Amino acid sequence: MFESLTQRLTQSFSFLRDKKELTADNIEEGLAEVRAALLEADVHFKVVQDFTAKVRTRALGERRIAGVDPSQQFIAAFHQELVELLGPKDARIDFAKNGPTIILMAGLQGAGKTTTCAKLGKYMREKFGRRPLLVAADVKRPAAVEQLQVLGKQIDVPVFHVPGLTPPELCLRGVAEARVKGCDLVILDTAGRLHIDQEMMEEVRAIARTVKPTATVLVVDAMTGQDAVSSAGAFNTALELTGVILTKLDGDARGGAAVSLKAVTGKPVLFTGVGEKIDDLDAFHVERMAGRILGMGDVVGLVEKAQSAISEKEAQASFEKMVLGDFTLEDMLGQLRMIRKLGPLKKVLGMMPGIGSQVGALDIDDKQMNRLEALFTSMTPRERLQPDILDMSRRRRVARGSGQEVGAVNDLLKRHREMKLLMKQMNKLGLAAQFGGKQKEAALKSMSGTGELASGGAGGGFLGGLGGLGKGIGNLFGGGGGAPAGMPPGGMSGLGGGGNPFGPRPMGSSATRKSGKKKKDKKRRR
After folding, report:
1. How far apart are CA 171 and CA 4, in angstroms?
2. SS3 assignment, position 521
3. What DSSP line would sit under 223-269, residue for residue?
4. Are residues 75 and 127 in the same domain?
5. pTM here?
6. What is the pLDDT of residues 493-510, one digit of tens each?
7. Residue 311: domain span
8. CB-based burial of residue 18 (10 Å sphere; 0-12 exposed, 13-18 middle, 19+ buried)?
9. What is the C-alpha to C-alpha distance for residues 431 and 176, in angstroms, rounded to an integer?
């Protein structure tokens, strides 16, 4: 969502790179660019005015640091004010001390409220060990009750509904049912409308008066732009909101609603919906979001995502294979599947520092993952363990089985050889330099659960495995070696334009090889 805003802000900061120091004039020039970028992103006009005024005050009041790029000082001031704008840092839903915690979910129809109820129930159970009960109190929208019941069955959470009751009665009975069943969290799915009306507001106010919820959360569709901010303001007037859940943050809207909501309503964003799957709900971390908007990435979020999707045992095994040099196509397939667990590649790359501002320009094709996996699974287990036996007849069979050209198989084998070579180089520079060749394997096997290597080797444990995984998969998609952990080798080279490894790429074109062979044959005949 923030790709266009990130790109515009990056451009607006670039004008300061050639300046020797920050002055009132060049700060004003930079703020004009920033103001235009924020307005283009659909940020509320008054929010833009107040925000840029605060950035000006902070930038002018900061002590000039010798040797520090003026653009970095300006970005630092911008980042600090952006954190203040999106804050507070520790916004959360407080649980009730006595009885079940009751969360009233409100919002317009189409914002994803019912799905978010199920997502929130699953999140609270997994993160805090809560026992949730979902109450289907949306009796206005056709199939809303059935939708919540299907979602509840999917995540194994009970759903309460009694036909014929009014929404306030349903919610009151639902809370009583939670006490009987021993549930300590009740999530009330209330009705929405296509637009704000008096009947809707009165109904949700009646529910709030009847059940006295612990928290009242507004679900807002980020794709609706300034309409989202307007509806949030109206709900905040009618109800005592605790906070906001911003859905569809993975969409292509300009991101202005996310930046404006806190300033307009005074209520913090608690969670963000980042996809359609039931697991796609993230806690809103102010500093991380500010970093992503400014193209700084979200390394902490990426590591947390990896830890939840990939077991430490898997990552450790991948790392050991890498440094021991015993790396087969079977291991390569395992790395591919681990990366797929992290989600869409575009989203993962957007969390990496230095790439967030360029993700929008990348032609990333997640279907390339499917094509690669088809190649692997068209091989026999023996062929994956012993790639050297893949002669031309076997390669043709693998190509037919995966529905691709023989050139795709050749390219995959070439990538495998490059990865093995890269790992040998890393091995020489890392563990082999710290330990003797024979001691290396013993040292790896005796690593602690934290994965710390003696003498600060190449890295180990979960983070070491994740770093090796990033390097491996980067080489799988193309590019050279020597990249930071978790980034494709060669930094951004090979991630865009003609060298984009995620889209269709020349795989040693068979036409090119045939033309070269014909020329050689002609020379021989002469």
Report:
1. 42
2. helix
3. GGTHHHHHHHHHHHHHS---EEEEE-TTSSS-SHHHHHHHHHHS--E
4. no
5. 0.63
6. 333 333 333 333 433 444
7. 305-499
8. exposed
9. 61
